Amino acid sequence: MAVIQIGVLTSGGDCPGLNAAIRGLGKALISKTNGRLIGFKDGFRGIAQDVFLELSSGELSGILTRGGTILGTARDKPHRMMIDGEQKDMTDVIVSNYKKRHLDALVCLGGGGTQKNALRLANAGLNVLTLPKTIDNDVWGTDVTFGFDTALCIATDAIDRLHSTATSHHRIIVVEIMGHRAGWLALGAGIAGGADVVVIPEIPYDIEKMAAAIRGRTEQGKRFSIVAVAEGALSLENKKTIDAMLAKKAKAKSKEQKKKISKQLEKFHERHIDNTLNLTKKLEELTGLESRLTILGHLQRGGIPSAGDRLLASRLGTACAEAIRNGVGNAMIGLRDNKTVTIPLEKVAGKLKLVPPDHQWVKSARDLSISFGD
Ligand code: F6P
Question: 274-301 pLDDT, tens per residue?
Answer without folding.
Answer: 999 999 999 999 999 999 999 999 999 9
